[in-house]
Design brief:
Structural class: alpha/beta
Bound molecules: NADP nicotinamide-adenine-dinucleotide phosphate
CATH superfamily of the largest domain: Medium-chain alcohol dehydrogenases, catalytic domain
CATH class of the largest domain: Alpha Beta
Number of domains: 2
Number of strands: 15
Largest sheet: 7 strands, mixed
Shape: globular
Distance between the termini: 13 Å
CATH topology of the largest domain: Quinone Oxidoreductase, Chain A, domain 1
CATH architecture of the largest domain: Alpha-Beta Complex
Strand content: 25-35%
Length: about 325
Amino acid sequence: MKAVQFPRYGGPDVLTVNDVPEPVPGTGQLLVRMQASSVNPIDWKLASGVLRFLMWIKRPATPGFDLVGEVLQVGPQSGKFSIGQQVVARISQNPGGATAEKALVSAKDCVLLPEGITPQDAAALPLAGMTALQALRDDCGMKLTGETKRVLIVGGSGGVGHYAVQIAHQAGAHVTAVCSGKRAAVVRSLGASVIIDYQQQDHLRSDAPYDIILDCASKPNWAPFEEVLTERGVLSQITFSAGWLARIAWTKLSSKKRIKPTMLKPNAKDLSLLLGWMKQGNLQSLVGASFPFTDLADAWRLNEKGGTLGKIGITYPEPQ
Ligand SMILES: NC(=O)c1ccc[n+]([C@@H]2O[C@H](COP(=O)([O-])OP(=O)(O)OC[C@H]3O[C@@H](n4cnc5c(N)ncnc54)[C@H](OP(=O)(O)O)[C@@H]3O)[C@@H](O)[C@H]2O)c1
């Protein structure tokens, strides 16, 4: 089968399309024919080697964490799944393996693709959607219904951000979103009451204060966030650096305001919840661009450059 691989650490230029042996599902695993995937910044960050001291990757390796596909083979003890079903998952092994004609996935990570949701819409959701949900609900303490808090989403038109805007709005929160001016109308349509263009000066202050802030844009400093949080407000930080870790420790000692590092914990229960909302029409995926899986290098270049609305989709050919 064909698989996109990085034979060594590097940027998109190191990716190659190779013929590799078809994997065999082990205990608890499914072999899936890929139908759709999507790009997440962690894919190219892992391949670049910047995270090698935290997460070492055996190479050559096939990237890609988001998976929608048809079950071809079922390994022993793989629960309720059977051949021919369409499943959705955030693959839990590193660095994924979705950017190939066929992929292995743990049955425990999989959910059946609900009727009426396209593979492309479902494949945009797992990693980014679960991160948005867990950041708001688990790390920031947002209730999923009847929430009255003021929530700021920085990067509201991006992969994680566009799901976060919808989840907070559906919960009942007053949602303010920071995005580029050209994305204002679409982010408003997702449920943001106030849109702030990040090119405006002092933009975080415009609609302050906020009880909850989710930063999806890797803003480097705590000070501008601290200023606009309520007295017991909480910031979810989804990108990590040594500076942020030190700041988190110091803030614990010195302030009632809190910084919560968010690290996605992929699980089928949260994915099922999100797919349920999508089926009911309360959550949608925005896929601003798509590439065939063999053009993954171009998809990564675009994701690194930024500026795409929502997610970048990855497509696969239909079987002959
Ligand atoms: N901890 C975890 O488990 C976890 C999980 C998922 C993602 N992440 C990390 O979270 C980050 C975001 O991921 P993503 O998938 O949402 O990426 P993304 O799709 O590239 O979104 C980033 C967003 O930031 C916006 N942006 C850029 N500069 C900005 C600024 N100065 N002010 C406000 N917004 C700005 C972009 O808007 P424009 O396009 O309009 O410029 C874009 O909407 C990445 O660093 C990723 O690695 C972490």
